[in-house]
From TrEMBL:
The lineage of its organism: Bacteria, Pseudomonadati, Bacteroidota, Bacteroidia, Bacteroidales. One of its GO terms (molecular function) is pyridoxal phosphate binding. It comes from Phocaeicola barnesiae. Belongs to the pyridoxal phosphate-binding protein YggS/PROSC family. Residues 3-220 form the Alanine racemase N-terminal domain. Signal peptide: none annotated. This is Pyridoxal phosphate homeostasis protein. Keywords: Pyridoxal phosphate. CDD domains: PLPDE_III_YBL036c_like. Its cofactor is pyridoxal 5'-phosphate. InterPro entries: Ala_racemase_N, PLP-binding_barrel, PyrdxlP_homeostasis.
């Protein structure tokens, strides 16, 4: 597995304005070091314990993104250093991130996870739940979080029309919320969508952050 070559190929495939989150979950720190040496600085992890160990032993200029489902009782561990939390799917979690960020003297960038796939099992707000949460307005009092945009995962399928439609749904919803709640908020600009098997489609549909793991680091051993 030539991680540096894979990284180079993926980067060559991504336009300048799209940022790459190299998803290193389940891969050892040596794999991250290889990508780091090749210049990659943004890494994505989905388990708090694993991230904690990697954070402690790897260079401090790495920008860590938490991309997995985050339990409220674990926010406190990563609040001192996490750069972005991609999968905020309840107001309760958002409020806890705010509380822990305040304790750490920080403002944490968050994305709201929207359920766009047909699969039942995926987390995320429905469009209506997200509208209701934002309309209700309490989030405006949270001063230590920054809502930077949306995140979504398409259905795992070979049907590219379906994947494309789901990404379109997320992009359209981003525009709706931008217009309604974030018109004067420059930092509301991110659409995190696209993984190893569907990032090209995601980019065509307006992704600004792609989360790519296996295409760079190889298959994961769970
Ligand atoms: C694991 C994971 C990825 C990366 O998946 P690959 O198919 O390996 O690119 C992206 N996003 C999330 C939320 C993940 O959990």
């Amino acid at each position: 597995m030539d991680i540096q070559q894979n990284l180079k190929e993926v980067l060559a495939d991504i336009p300048q304005q799209v940022r790459l989150v190299a998803v290193s979950k389940f891969h050892p720190k040596e794999a991250i070091e290889a990508a780091y040496t090749a210049g990659q600085r943004i890494f994505g992890e989905s388990k708090v314990q694993e991230l904690e160990e990697k954070y402690a032993s790897l260079p401090k200029d790495i920008e860590w993104h938490f991309i997995g489902h985050l339990q409220t009782n674990k926010v406190k561990y990563i609040a001192p250093y996490i750069a972005m939390i991609h999968a905020v799917d309840t107001y309760k979690l958002l409020a806890e991130i705010d509380r822990q960020a305040a304790k750490a003297g920080r403002t944490i960038s968050c994305l709201l996870e929207i359920h766009i796939a047909q699969e039942e099992s995926k987390y995320g707000f429905s469009l209506q739940e997200c509208r209701d949460m934002l309309d209700e307005g309490s989030w405006k009092g949270l001063k230590n979080i920054r809502i930077c945009g949306l995140m979504g995962m398409a259905t795992y399928t070979d049907d590219t029309d379906q994947i494309r439609n789901e990404f379109k749904t997320l992009h359209d919803f981003f525009l709706e919320l931008k217009q309604k709640h974030f018109q004067d908020t420059d930092s509301f600009k991110e659409i995190s969508m696209g993984m190893s098997h569907d990032y090209q489609l995601a980019i065509e549909e307006g992704s600004t952050l792609v989360r790519i793991g296996s295409k760079i680091f190889g298959e994961r051993n769970y």
